[in-house]
Amino acid sequence: MPALRAEVRQVSKKMGRAQALQQVNAVFDAGKVHGIIGPNGAGKTTLIRVLAGLLHPDEGSVVYDEAGKLLSAADVKRVTGYFPQEPSLYPDLTCREHLEFFRDLYDLPQAPFERRAEELLYATGMAPFQGRPAGKLSGGMYKKLGLMCVLLNRPKLLLLDEPTVGVDPVSRQELWDLVYGFAGEEMTVIVSTSYMDEAGRCSQVHVLSGGRMLASGMPQDVMNHFGVTDFAEIFLKNE
Amino acid sequence: MKFSWRRARSVAYKEYKHILRDPFTLAVTLILPMIFVGMFGFVIDLDYKHMRVAVRDNDQTSVSRRFLQEMASSGYFNLTPVHSPAEADRELEQNGSPALLIIKRGFGRNIRAANPENPGQIQLLADGTDNVQASIMGTYLQGVVQKANAVFAKDNPDLSGGAESGARTGEQIRSRFLFNPELNSRWFIVPALSTIIIGFLAIVLTALTVAKEWENGSMELLLSTPVRPSEIVLGKLVPYFVLTFLDVLVVFVLAVYVFRIPFLGSFPFYMLACWVYITGALALGLVISVVTRQQQAAIQFAFAVGLLPSFIFSGFIFPIENMPAFFQYFTALFPQRWFLLISRTVFLSDAAPVTLAAAFGAIGLFATAMILLAVHKFKTDVEP
Known about the structure:
The complex is a heterodimer of chains A (239) and B (384).
Chain A: E1 4-15, E2 18-28, E3 33-37, H1 44-51, E4 59-66, E5 69-70, H2 73-78, E6 80-83, H3 95-105, H4 110-124, H5 139-151, E7 157-161, H6 169-182, E8 188-193, E9 204-209, E10 212-217, H7 219-226, H8 231-238
Parallel strand pairs in A: 3-8, 3-9, 6-7, 7-8
Antiparallel strand pairs in A: 1-2, 1-4, 4-5, 9-10
Helix pairs in contact in A: 3-5, 4-5
Chain B: H1 5-20, H2 23-43, E1 51-57, H3 62-73, E2 77-81, H4 85-93, E3 99-103, H5 107-113, E4 122-126, H6 131-155, H7 185-216, H8 218-223, H9 229-258, H10 267-292, H11 295-306, H12 308-312, H13 325-330, H14 335-348, H15 357-377
Parallel strand pairs in B: 1-2, 1-3
Antiparallel strand pairs in B: 3-4
Helix pairs in contact in B: 1-9, 2-7, 2-9, 3-6, 7-9, 7-10, 7-11, 7-14, 9-10, 10-11, 10-14, 10-15, 14-15
């Protein structure tokens, strides 16, 4: 089953008094790992939430298609996995209980669930910690659990809002490896990050600053476009 | 997407685990009603008994002593004899007697003479700062006078001669109070108190649940899944329904076995009414939670909506019939008013449930409206 393609068209969004997004255009091609990069306050979370259908654009629209076939908002929700930046798991529920809760929310049959859970637990190395409550996990393990929950359903579009914030360098590497491990033909991944060194890991980057999309493309092309050797320089230049 | 029982059940199961793993909430929910109903049930007693009264008997005859004996045996008064005006003052001002009874000189002689022009006289001076006690004391004293008259008439046939009598017994009104023959205020209070406490607790319990998910950030993750508002609302209602229903049973046992309040009505009907009533209260809590999205604001709302009006507009403290017309209609909005009527009626009388159809309909309507409102107000996005 092919991954989703998302296209953001002229999207503007005000959050309170702040203009969080201003006429943003972006194309998120299917099956790739996209990075939305920008400093804090650039509008990354707002854009991810708009993509997840949790915020509605004041102007503009987002369209999703699966191999050329347009999808409704309800259909998109069924095949989208989203893990927010803020802690959003239940501290008193164990890893296993989280997986079972999401199994029911996604209405997964037991046998495929068991196979998928085993696959995810193996890939994340979380199998020994199934009985541990989410509130007692380390930063990296917490994010891995969140990732497992949203990957259970084999989403065609995976949205991760700053998944590596508050995570040690080794776990950051592991998380990126996981994302690449699961991305591919069947899943488009959109990750937001304010760590500029992570931009190079993406197959496509979308540079967001002050609510405006400055550029999109392959990392090297974007750096060439701005005449810089490091993504941080783009924002320093633009300040 | 269709309503999914599986998703609703998974939300309920998750909520049930939260409850079990939070011993504080569990303890508060199960113990608080016991403490409140137990404590208030014992403390709130509207029956005045053993009121301290200073007595100055200026007559000192067997008749006056007989009268005082009747007064003391009524159980309403504790009599303290005083022998001088100074002692009477001291009793009133320093020893806290709220009243002074003076039996005038010639009381016994006049009663024996049975002269209607010149009856035996007593005077009651009561402390008007506590107007309720003062008026109750006056009423009780009239009762004692009436009874004493009957006793004197028995002893002295001349007194029973109607108009010629010095102490007229008159036509006696014999009142018999149905359903609560002793007019025991505890019988009246405990069924009502449990209504209010359980209703309030139900509102507070659910008022926190959705707001907590918003504050913890879990709502954002939940809303990104296919789960629907109706599934979340149902999933949140069920575990708290079970918990609150346990409270209903605890309070029922307390009322019947500790306070010895008779339960004469239909038990199945009462249970059904309890289910509907607590569902409405839980759903109201959810509406508060869904709208405020913050625990602190939710708890303040829950107190404002759940506690004050339920004391004032339910008829628990102030009789609804005495309210201005507008407020009489206004009270109809509060399910506590209707459930209180059901609760008091089924406890103390064996009225057929059909006589409570309107009250039952009102709590049913409220519960339905609140569930629909909670689902309707439930946001499926994170817009501020």
